[in-house]
Design a protein that fits this description.
The chain is about 40% helix and about 15% strand. By secondary structure, it is an alpha/beta fold. It has two domains: about 160 residues, Aspartate Aminotransferase, domain 1 (Alpha-Beta Complex), CATH 3.90.1150.10; about 260 residues, 3-Layer(aba) Sandwich (Aspartate Aminotransferase, domain 2), CATH 3.40.640.10. The longest helix is centred in the last third of the chain and has 22 residues.
Length: about 450
């Protein structure tokens, strides 16, 4: 007999009867009761250092007091107002403040609810404005789970399996992945990727039929892959040559993650359209598609729409998130703490035959694991290391095509003591694996 008022423990035990498998069957399914700062707390009182940061949505850690207070204050006035029918101050003020700091001169916004929605809107906007059908995305990309975003996603074939046909007009070129490239240098790797686009233009789709390049400045789900210096600028040059728009998917890289407010600034590239979400409101659901006014104004009334996008509570939280990043000097903190963490990971690489590559920018770092003596992916080691870390009170998560990479994404306000603790737990988990232990 089912209880009328089940306990949390009972609900956790029956989660797979309540939630779709696509939602419920993930790892590690911690029974979390509360979160504060850098930590998650489960229903048994155990504390976990969270270096997943809500998949990068909580760049300021959990329940940042200023963000919570801003959301609470907004809720006392109005919780929901569909933009265009009723416009609230928080959505306009957020657009105003973001317009001061966006790359590419973006100063006009369409607010949605998520990263996938931001990508969908960017695709529609680019096609609408250019009157061209083609979108060139990149192998290893992840842009979201909705149909348009999935049509542009290639990080894993299982994200696409069973859901075709996809939207027409999507084409794929190589993303420069220096560690797994056969090219002799990062520069040659970048050139190979540009040559791949030239082959598309020559054999598959003419450049005058391409509306946009859609690219993550750093590939996220694909493995935290950082392109060689200058590659994004070459993509910008090619876009300008052929009248193609450059869409930067900054859903994972935005709001301080790379040590600048946006990765466009980290890499010195000017986009036409920017996709924002995750860290924008520090855990509240919000997404945004940003572009210069001359682009966005060509997208006429009724050409796109939303019910919940630009929610006043989420916008108030986002506004305060931006202020905290600016006033607490968190971009510099992300650079400093990220540099220290990267140095520690490189030292670990020297001691471990299963660490193939260490890479990072700001506090967006990753370690790729391989079989000793080669580059064969080692997802078994990743699983063992993650479970060992979890047992020691720390949460991280895999990425990469073979789940061979562990992403390390502390909150950008992490202090030195927290980074040292996390680095020590991670180091010990890796060294224990090298010693042959799997438990």
């Amino acid at each position: 007999m089912k209880p009328n008022h089940p306990t949390f423990e009972y609900l956790i035990a029956h989660r797979e009867d309540l939630l779709a498998p696509a939602l419920a069957q993930d790892w590690p399914n911690l029974p979390i009761e509360r979160a504060q700062g850098a930590y998650l707390y489960d229903c048994h009182g155990k504390r976990y250092l969270d270096w997943l940061s809500g998949f990068g949505a909580c760049n300021l850690g959990h329940n940042h007091p200023r963000v919570v207070a801003a959301a609470q204050a907004q809720m006392e006035h109005i919780v929901h107002a569909p933009v265009g029918v009723a416009t609230t101050e928080s959505v306009l003020r957020l657009a105003w403040e973001l317009g001061k700091v966006m790359p590419g001169g973006a100063d006009m916004f369409f607010f949605g609810n998520s990263g996938a929605e931001a990508v969908e809107a960017a695709i529609k906007l680019a096609r609408y404005v250019t009157k061209r059908p083609g979108i060139i995305a990149f192998i290893g990309s992840f842009h979201g789970r909705t149909l348009g975003a999935t049509s542009a996603t290639t990080s894993k074939s299982r994200y696409r399996s069973g859901m075709s046909p996809y939207l027409p007009g999507f084409y794929f070129a190589r993303f420069p992945y220096p560690y797994r490239s056969k090219a002799p240098s990062p520069e040659d790797c970048a050139q190979d990727a540009m040559d791949d686009i030239d082959r598309l233009f020559e054999h598959v789709i003419a450049p005058q039929e391409v509306a946009a390049f859609l690219v993550e400045p750093v590939q996220g789900e694909g493995g935290y892959i950082i392109p060689p210096p200058g590659w994004l600028n070459e993509l910008r040059r090619l876009a300008d040559k052929h009248g193609i728009m450059l869409i930067l998917d900054e859903v994972q890289t935005g709001f301080g993650r790379t040590g600048e407010l946006f990765a466009a600034q980290t890499f010195g590239v000017e986009p036409d359209i920017v996709c924002l979400a995750k860290g924008i409101a520090n855990g509240l659901p919000l997404g945004a598609t940003a572009a210069r006014a001359e682009i966005m104004k060509a997208w006429g009334p009724a050409s796109h729409g939303t019910t919940f996008g630009g929610n006043p509570v989420s916008c108030a939280a986002a506004l305060e998130t931006l202020h905290v990043i600016q006033e607490e000097n968190l971009l510099a903190n992300a650079s400093v703490q990220g540099g220290y963490l990267l140095e520690g990971l490189r030292f670990l690489k020297e001691k471990s035959p299963i660490v193939g590559d260490v890479r990072g920018v700001g506090l967006m770092l990753a370690v790729e694991f391989v079989q000793p003596g080669g580059k064969e992916p080692n997802p078994a080691a990743v699983s063992n290391i993650l479970n060992r870390m979890l047992a020691n009170g720390m949460l991280c998560y895999p990425c990469g095509h073979w789940a061979q990479t562990i992403r390390l994404i502390p909150a950008i306000n992490a202090d030195h003591a927290e980074v040292e603790v996390g680095l020590e737990i991670f180091t010990q988990a890796v060294l224990a694996e090298v010693g042959g232990g799997a438990g």
